[in-house]
Specification:
- There is one protein chain.
- The chain has 270 residues and is an alpha/beta fold.
- It has a single domain, classed as Rossmann fold (3-Layer(aba) Sandwich).
- It contains 10 helices and 8 strands.
- Helix 4 packs parallel to helix 5 and helix 4 packs parallel to helix 10.
- The longest helix has 18 residues.
């Protein structure tokens, strides 16, 4: 049952035949984890909170920095120096006090990630660190938890949704991290501030669709976006039978930290 306040708050959702009261109840019962409360995580967190996702987890060990504010819209100038997870939770519960926001002020690593993601239905990778991206993929595949990957640089972004055992994973596309210094960091190459807003909201949309059981997820599909051309391209990705973690004879059977992986956009400034 929905309360009178919930019926009024989520009326525009309930009016949709694909959602209705039962669908909104699924969202309220849903649990989504966002790893990285920065550029990609900021818009995803705001919209998932507004949509009434009942439990949202935020993982980030960083504090708000002045350079974050060009794109991390969940943080304000007055938040500089504060923990990102605390700043983000404050905005999310201000939008919707009826949700639960769990905060983890720590970096994910091989020793803690399985214990964190195990409590959630869906994971959003909001990091910009290759080591973290490969770790998140491996953990979600081993735990059987669906998740959304996204990456951004300059004016370009990409995203794919992974359903372990059913669709291609991140390592099906990129079997291992790129060599150090092969790709510039965002601080070197730059990133247009609105870009993570587009990609982060696509990730939030995937989470909502999965919880509702409606629509087509970006499984087996890499969505590539270019802001300058305002173009979206879909690239079909098959599962790789030689994938080191989800292939026919996987070589990765336990988690490890990719300590030598190049940083795409330093996680501390993500």
């Amino acid at each position: 049952m929905l309360t009178d306040e919930q019926i009024e708050r989520y009326q525009r959702h309930i009016a949709l035949k694909e959602v209705g009261g039962k669908g909104q109840r699924r969202l309220l019962d849903g649990r989504v984890l966002i790893i990285g409360a920065g550029a990609l995580g900021a818009p995803a967190a705001l919209y998932l909170a507004a949509a009434g996702i009942g439990t949202i987890g935020l993982v980030d060990a960083d504090a708000v920095d002045l350079t974050n504010l060009q794109r991390q819209v969940i943080h304000f100038t007055s938040d500089i120096g504060r923990a990102k997870v605390v700043s983000a939770r404050e905005k999310m519960t201000a939008i919707n006090p009826g949700i639960q926001v769990n905060t983890y002020q720590e970096w994910v690593h091989a020793g803690n990630i399985l214990g964190i993601i195990g409590d959630y239905d869906f994971v959003i990778d909001g990091t910009d660190n290759f080591a973290a991206k490969f770790l998140i993929n491996d953990a979600c595949v081993l735990a059987g938890i669906p998740y959304s990957h996204a990456g951004i640089l300059r004016f370009d972004g990409q995203t794919i949704t992974v359903r372990p055992g059913e669709s291609a994973c991140y390592r099906c596309i990129f079997p291992s991290p790129p060599p150090k210094d092969a790709i510039p960091t965002c601080s070197q190459a730059g990133v247009i501030g609105v870009l993570p807003g587009v990609l982060g909201l696509i990730q939030a949309t995937e989470a909502i669709k999965l919880l509702l059981g409606k629509g087509d997820l970006l499984t087996g599909t890499l969505l590539v976006y270019n802001a300058l051309a305002m173009s979206f391209d879909k690239i079909h990705i098959n599962r790789n039978p030689k994938c080191p973690i989800c292939g026919e004879t996987p070589s990765i059977k336990e988690l490890k930290d990719e300590v030598d992986a190049v940083t795409h956009c330093d996680l501390e400034k993500s």
